Amino acid sequence: MLRIGGLMAALAFAVLMLAPDLAEARAGGGKSSGSRGYNTYQQTPAKPIDRSVTQRQSPAPAALPGQPAAGGFLQRSPFMTGLMGGLLGAGLFGMLFHNPAWAAEGSNAGSTVGLLLQFALIGLALWFVVGLVRRSFGYAPAAAGAGGGPAAVSPPGAAATRDAPEPGPEITAEDRQEFGKLLAAIQQAWSEGDLARLRPLATPEMVSYFAEDLADLASRGERNVVRDVTLVKGDVVDHWIEGDRQYATAVMTWRAIDYLERGGAAVDGDDKAPSEATEAWTFLRASGGKWLLSAIQQV
Q1: Which of 19, 213, 240, 250 is the most exposed place for a label (fewest CB within 10 A)?
Q2: Hey, what CATH topology would domain 22-51+165-298 get?
């Protein structure tokens, strides 16, 4: 009996885990999706975005003082590398095996002077090559800065900071009202499975996610009904501009009748009592345009 009871408990747990969750049924699929421009992967009060067309940017690490710079002169010029190696090798081996001063023991003073001159030329050539190699690999002394110290080195990411978005204009009461209207209109279009009505309300990226989630529901023969949407609270937590685009992220708590329907009957959720959800919605608009939904993040 204990074994049967344990099996039944495990089965019930599996059914609960596999059953559709209403938190994953409303518009957005309960996932953090979309793009927030430059700030797509910046930390926010909501969960990180896990599906987006915006790729993560990994800035190249800057070379630290004393470290070799990538792609020195000899690395970038194989021709010069081969030429210098060939000249050095030919000069050394030619002097070692073809100079009579190395073969004859009774060399005169002239040959001695010539030999010393050859050694001096070899040393000069080696000094030139070593200096060239050191400079090409980034070991040249830093230029002196103020007070005779080394020149200042720009910190990593300085270039990226210049491209960062700028604070946008304040979000007005009219903007907040528009956000609430978009919330209700998008949930209604989602509930009816009407992609044509969703397209003028959201970015093409978000519409593609809506289409994907609606296709999953249709494959299971289900429909997610979301009606009587009421915005309980909305707080704008971030707003900025990038070029001619303006962004705003609002954390919104809303209440609605939210349930899954199959064959005209509710199979999950409550078709009479409203449930509550909190999500962060990011909106964008072009200069002089209207607001569109560009991202939904779970909180």
Answers
A1: 19
A2: Nuclear Transport Factor 2; Chain: A, (3.10.450)
